[in-house]
User: Which sequence fits this backbone?
């Protein structure tokens, strides 16, 4: 034995291991192909599941699906890193004696006090380190994000130009410009911080995940110590209701010891505790108790082998705090726009410096050149854009919240606007999740629930009655739902999922449910899950005072008191191969399940499924007591395996057909989505025929008679490449309209067939597992799809996380809501509103940029260029440029965020994120070549006309390069004021023209009912300009000046002319949608 204190960071550094399918064939760990498996219950997880990000609570899901593409979200990287980094843990694989020896501890006495103290000094506290706040990084991002870095550089340059370069006569205007730029940076940082805090989802505190005190064995004595003082090698006593304080290797267990691991795995069903390894995956093996999980039953003794940050829980918490998400489509567009503007500004600034230094070295001093460079930067940068983006997203998010759509991040709204594929779950999303049994069948005899009850009650044949009553009896026994104790006998309230609840109410119609359940006690139960697709119970009969056997036992069963009853309920294609006989509805012993008999049953199944029913088979088997050894531990894993072997030679007692009505708003929702150019797919675990029927009712499948199947995917791997360059996929030549494909068939498709499959317009994916849902999302993304995935169950969480926009239902599980980007709190039809406003965000941001660029960029640049190129005075001061960008232009630009959707917004196809840009060449051409040119020419003409009226003609200014006779500083400031107010007033015309892209101002007037922010924002913009220009105290600081009143009214005519010209352009676009003007339209 040895004491391993010196091995900190090595012996206890492992965490999560992977299941290696063939470990003996593995040459080294680097070549490991990760395959993590798990079982997911269809029930909701318990409350603690919300404490960890979903990618780590679904670590057991198979994520190695590289052949079908990869997730587009970088948030999945920590999970893959976890699988690679944490693949060395072997504590659950070694024997118990080896574990005790490795930790130098006796199972009889535990650690001695000296050992505990040394290990406490070596390994520290058993505490999870709080996630780093990274506040410095956040602050840097707030300040330098967007245009912040350029503005800060410009501010520093202005300070330098003021002093020391401005000595001995520093200009206060340079200092004022530097300060104003810092104020702009401050305001942008405040807005960035507000957006960050309002949209980020901070992981909940995990301090309360650990118990305060635990019972440990030290020096042979049971001692209570704080959980934070546990050390590797401690033996911890576990009791029911206690949270596991560290990662433990189980040493002693009771037969009923169980743990709730939902906080880590998303699995709601308790996991039994065992001494021996049951799985190579630490998240699945039962001989490990993981920190943070809950002991829900029994008791045991565990050996601490990892504490604090080294535990699985601690490592996941650490990685989750480091996890980051990738850029959304909107963030990528904003970044691209910033790069374009910054590049143009830098290029022009360099050209100005080169030109001035080479051609006119004495025209402007170094300080002046620097200020000109800053002016170029200021002129190019639309400083109001970041604020406009934040306000626009927040406004849309608020509007969506009024429609009961919760956006967990603001930027995801725009992503939804570019979605071109919606993958929707069926149950609870398209349907009401209010199931009821519509049909029942015993062999080939079909009944409604009422007619079956009438047949049982009216039949005089005892054999017929005992055979027919088996269907409702098994429905009651093999059922995870329960009746609410507080409800009356007539109006029973059921607690459980929709399927079990419907079947239990079906059994209750026969007045059998409660009485039959009271006669049977479960010995073993396995709930329904998405992998096995059936539920199983093994029960023993409780003797009744009146004696006799209880249903569903029949006279031909030869049932003895110690025998057991195995009941099973599930998917027909899964259970039929396990069945050997079927109940005879005419009485007597069951009929052999021959091929002809099976085909009759399958015919009923297919008929019901084609009508939209969910079909389940119910079967049972009497298990003689002599088949089960008396010494068999019924809580052991071996017993579970034994029961699985007994799940054969079953007797079919009947079929039930459940119907889950379609939500009334679904057909219209699907119609609008498809009209918007979005493909609408169904991804469900239900039967193919049932799924196609529901999809047909919803309008997702237009022609059920012409639906293709897996056999129609006839291409070979050489026909279609898996992925084209830049995501462009060349679709097959033949028309691909509708197809239904099952999960089993999906596993068989080649990459080329997957490309062909993804080209279909209407797809129903049936009988899919959670792993397959994830693969579907990834495959569509790899082929250019922007995928929105809807779901409400635990099983949907991985695909919700992987989708570009995960949409959970408000009534769904906590895990699904945590994984999703958006939650529909009420009706599914709200997704139409979300789609429309997602597109509206992008449209309004284009309008905002279009408004900001003419005056806030182009018309500010022109005075600088003319000053440099032809030597005329700079007709707009640098401070005035800042005032336009961050004062007079901001409020009208923000009013664009409140523009309602234009007609036909959902009639357009989705935006192609690879081709459609926020600021494309059409927008820049219109902003600079049309609006900007008109505003610049009018403003220049007004300012030079003003100087000419004051005795300074243009001829005396041109090519003057600082030698401008008769031009005084006061007169120049007044001329600059004319230029400034001409732009401010003409921006009114720009505002009215840019509000719509195609609609006329007559159709969308700037009235209070349409957009109440337009007129007030325009008036306030003028008021701000007057405020800074007509207060004498500001004249010397901001280089402003008041102007004669006529120079307000003349620009109004220019603005009106601009509106008229743009109305003519819009008319040409509407009348000639394929004309030259329409092709140039932004």
Assistant:
């Amino acid at each position: 034995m040895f004491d391993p204190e010196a091995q900190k960071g090595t012996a206890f550094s492992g965490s999560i291991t992977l299941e290696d399918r063939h470990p003996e064939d593995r040459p080294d760990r680097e070549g490991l192909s990760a395959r993590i498996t798990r079982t997911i219950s269809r029930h909701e997880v318990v409350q603690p599941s919300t404490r960890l990000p979903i990618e780590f609570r679904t670590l057991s899901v198979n994520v190695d699906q590289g052949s079908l593409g990869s997730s587009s979200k970088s948030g999945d990287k920590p999970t893959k890193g976890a699988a690679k980094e944490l693949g060395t843990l072997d504590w659950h694989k070694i024997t118990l004696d080896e574990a005790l020896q490795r930790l130098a501890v006796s199972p009889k006495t535990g650690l001695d006090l000296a050992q505990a103290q040394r290990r406490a000094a070596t390994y520290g506290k058993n505490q999870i380190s709080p996630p780093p706040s990274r506040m410095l990084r956040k602050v840097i991002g707030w300040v330098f994000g967007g245009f912040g870095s350029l503005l800060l550089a410009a501010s520093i340059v202005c300070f330098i130009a003021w002093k020391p370069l401005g000595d001995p006569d520093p200009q206060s205007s340079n200092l004022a410009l530097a300060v104003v730029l810092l104020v702009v940076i401050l305001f942008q940082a405040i807005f960035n911080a507000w957006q960050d805090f309002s949209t980020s989802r901070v992981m909940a505190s995990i301090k309360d995940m650990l118990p305060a005190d635990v019972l440990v064995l030290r020096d042979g004595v049971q001692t209570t110590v704080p959980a934070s003082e546990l050390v590797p090698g401690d033996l911890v006593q576990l009791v029911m209701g206690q949270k596991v304080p560290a990662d433990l290797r189980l040493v002693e267990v009771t037969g009923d010891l169980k743990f709730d691991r939902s906080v880590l795995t998303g699995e709601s069903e308790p996991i039994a505790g065992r001494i021996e390894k049951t799985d190579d995956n630490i998240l699945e093996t039962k001989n490990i108790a993981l920190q943070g999980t809950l002991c829900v039953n029994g008791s045991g003794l565990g050996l601490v082998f990892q504490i604090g940050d080294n535990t699985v829980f601690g490592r996941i918490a650490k990685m989750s705090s480091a996890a980051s998400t990738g850029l959304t489509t909107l963030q990528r567009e904003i970044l691209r726009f910033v790069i374009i503007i910054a590049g143009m500004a830098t290029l022009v600034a360099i050209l100005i410096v080169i030109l001035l230094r080479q051609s006119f070295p004495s025209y402007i001093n170094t300080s002046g050149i620097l200020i000109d460079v800053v002016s170029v930067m200021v002129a190019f940068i639309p400083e109001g854009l970041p604020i406009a983006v934040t306000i626009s997203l927040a406004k849309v998010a608020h509007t969506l919240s009024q429609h009961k759509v919760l956006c967990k991040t603001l930027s995801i709204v725009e992503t939804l606007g570019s979605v071109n594929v919606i993958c929707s779950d069926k149950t609870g999303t398209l349907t009401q999740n209010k199931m009821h049994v519509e049909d029942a069948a015993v062999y080939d005899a079909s009944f409604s629930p009422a007619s079956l009850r009438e047949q049982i009650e009216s039949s005089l044949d005892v054999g017929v009655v005992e055979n027919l009553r088996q269907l409702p009896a098994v429905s009651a026994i093999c059922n995870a739902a329960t009746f609410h104790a507080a409800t009356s006998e007539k109006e029973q309230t059921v607690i459980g999922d929709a399927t079990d609840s419907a079947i239990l109410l079906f059994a209750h119609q026969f007045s059998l449910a409660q009485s039959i359940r009271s006669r049977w006690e479960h010995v073993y139960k396995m709930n329904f899950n998405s992998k096995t697709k059936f539920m199983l119970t093994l029960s023993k009969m409780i003797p009744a005072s009146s004696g006799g056997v209880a249903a569903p036992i029949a006279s031909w069963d030869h049932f003895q008191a110690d025998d057991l009853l195995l009941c099973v309920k599930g998917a027909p294609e899964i259970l039929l191969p396990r069945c050997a006989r079927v109940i005879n509805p005419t009485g007597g012993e069951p009929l052999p399940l021959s091929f002809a008999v099976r085909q009759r049953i399958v015919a009923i199944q297919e008929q019901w499924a084609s009508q939209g029913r969910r079909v389940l088979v119910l079967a049972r088997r009497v298990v003689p007591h002599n088949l089960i050894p008396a010494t068999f531990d019924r809580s052991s894993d071996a017993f579970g395996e034994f029961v699985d072997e007994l799940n054969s030679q079953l007797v079919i007692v009947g079929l039930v057909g459940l119907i889950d009505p379609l939500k009334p708003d679904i057909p219209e929702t699907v119609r609008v989505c498809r009209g918007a150019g979005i493909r609408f797919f169904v991804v469900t675990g239900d039967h193919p025929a049932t799924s196609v029927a529901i999809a047909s009712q919803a309008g997702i499948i237009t022609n059920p008679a012409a639906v293709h199947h897996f056999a129609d995917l006839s291409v070979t791997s050489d026909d279609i490449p898996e992925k084209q360059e830049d995501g462009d996929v060349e679709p097959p030549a033949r028309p691909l309209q509708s197809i239904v494909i099952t999960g089993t068939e999906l596993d068989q498709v080649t990459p080329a067939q997957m490309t062909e499959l993804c080209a279909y317009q209407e797809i129903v994916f049936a009988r899919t597992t959670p792993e397959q849902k994830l693969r579907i999302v990834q495959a569509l993304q790899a082929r250019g799809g922007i995928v929105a995935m809807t779901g409400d169950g635990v099983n949907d969480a991985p695909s919700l996380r992987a989708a570009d926009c995960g949409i959970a239902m408000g009534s769904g599980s906590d895990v699904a809501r945590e994984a999703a980007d958006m939650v529909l709190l009420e009706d599914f039809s709200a997704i139409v509103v979300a789609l429309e406003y997602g597109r509206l965000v992008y449209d309004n941001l284009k309008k905002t940029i279009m408004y900001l660029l003419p005056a806030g960029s182009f018309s500010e640049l022109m005075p600088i260029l003319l000053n440099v190129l032809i030597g005329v005075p700079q007709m707009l001061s640098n401070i005035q440029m800042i005032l336009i960008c961050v004062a007079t232009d901001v409020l009208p630009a923000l009013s664009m965020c409140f523009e309602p959707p234009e007609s036909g917004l959902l009639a357009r196809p989705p935006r192609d994120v690879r081709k459609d840009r926020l600021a494309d060449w059409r927008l820049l051409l219109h902003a600079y070549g049309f609006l900007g040119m008109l505003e610049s020419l009018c403003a220049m003409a007004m300012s030079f006309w003003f100087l000419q009226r004051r005795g300074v003609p243009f001829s005396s200014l041109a090519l003057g390069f600082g030698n401008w006779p008769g031009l005084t500083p006061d007169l120049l400031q007044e001329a600059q004021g004319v230029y400034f107010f001409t732009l401010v007033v003409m921006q009114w015309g720009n505002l009215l023209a840019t509000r719509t892209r195609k609609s006329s101002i007559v159709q969308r007037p700037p009235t209070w009912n349409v957009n109440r922010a337009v007129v007030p924002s325009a008036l306030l913009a003028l008021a701000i300009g007057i405020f800074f220009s007509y207060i004498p105290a500001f004249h010397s600081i901001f280089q402003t000046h008041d102007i004669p009143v006529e120079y307000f009214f003349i620009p109004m005519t220019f603005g009106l002319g601009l509106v008229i010209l743009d109305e003519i352009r819009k008319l040409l676009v509407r009348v000639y949608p394929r004309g030259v003007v329409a092709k140039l339209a932004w």
